Amino acid sequence: MSTIDINALADELSTAYAEGRTVLPPSARGIGFDLPAAYAVEAELMHRRRERGSHTVGRKVGFANKAMWRILKLETLVWAHMYDHTVRHASANDASLEVSGCISPRIEPEIVFGLKAPMMEGSSDPAAVLDSVDWISLGFEVNDCVYPDWQFQPADFVAAYGLHLALIVGEPQPVSAHTISALVEQLARFKLRLLKNGELVEEGSGKNSLRSPALCLGELGRIVARGTSPEPLLSGEMVSTGTLTAPQPIAAGETWTAEVLDLDLPQLTLRLS
């Protein structure tokens, strides 16, 4: 990482987003760009946003589908920060978002957790993970990519804000000691339907997020505690646990709806302009 200019890459990636243009992925430049370097760039971008008055409110997960790890030579998932100006709560599970000025936006339906206690280490026991959770909701992660044709490696993903443009959070449902046992079962087997303008686009499943979004949260807690971040997962943070379907390209004028089966969460609708 000593030969990689972290500040220069942070400048380039933030400017690319601001100007709406694409750039060559750092991993394709022959500079040995890897995940430690990528998290250093992500941290620099985070500090810059904080200096401008933004606050971090949680983390988003990437590559939570374990089937991709061997192909991408990953040993675990990756993550990036989310901010108070990028996360919004839907009113009555209906929200709007402007995407007309984006480069190449895509949408992902995800399960979102709100933490009530710090996660100082991870766990592979979903019940233990959910014991740290205050609420659960359905969400839409909206990403935008500065890399041509959405071609990049996990390190490139991390360095570019995790491609995070916005997170739309549906109505939170409380998690309590009385509901954890049922949630453990439901999160591992629930189904999701993703609709565009009322037409079914794809069906997904909780299994696509590391076999269960609860296990995905536990894995994030593990890797954060083991050094990918100087800051642990704290109470009050939100975590978006990875897409439940393939990411779908989106455009202004569309209406997207996610609805779940076998999990007590209301459907969520997002209208794009």
In a nutshell, what does this entry contain?
With 273 residues, this protein is of the alpha+beta class. The protein contains seven helices and 14 strands.
Kindly describe this structure.
The protein has 7 helices and 14 strands. 26% of the residues lie in helices and 29% in strands. It has helices at 6-19, 35-51, 69-72, 126-130, 154-159, 180-189, 213-228; strands at 56-62, 78-83, 87-89, 94-97, 106-115, 133-143, 164-169, 173-174, 191-196, 199-205, 238-240, 248-249, 255-261, 268-272. With 273 residues, it is an alpha+beta fold. The radius of gyration is 18 Å and the shape is globular. Strands 1, 2, 3, 5, 6, 7, 8, 11 and 12 form a 9-stranded mixed β-sheet that branches. It has one domain: Fumarylacetoacetase-like, C-terminal domain (Fumarylacetoacetate hydrolase, domain 2).
Which SSEs are present, and which pair or pack?
Elements: H1 6-19, H2 35-51, E1 56-62, H3 69-72, E2 78-83, E3 87-89, E4 94-97, E5 106-115, H4 126-130, E6 133-143, H5 154-159, E7 164-169, E8 173-174, H6 180-189, E9 191-196, E10 199-205, H7 213-228, E11 238-240, E12 248-249, E13 255-261, E14 268-272
Parallel strand pairs: 1-11, 3-7, 4-14
Antiparallel strand pairs: 1-2, 5-6, 5-11, 5-12, 6-7, 6-8, 9-10, 9-13, 13-14
Shape: globular
> Strand-and-helix sequence, N→C?
HHEHEEEEHEHEEHEEHEEEE
Looking at the structure, the CATH topology is Fumarylacetoacetate hydrolase, domain 2
Main β sheet profile = 9 strands, mixed
CATH architecture: Alpha-Beta Complex
Point out poorly predicted stretches: none
Q: Write out the CATH superfamily name.
A: Fumarylacetoacetase-like, C-terminal domain
CA-to-CA gap between the ends?
Answer: 41 Å
Q: What is the overall pLDDT average?
A: 95
- Number of beta strands: 14
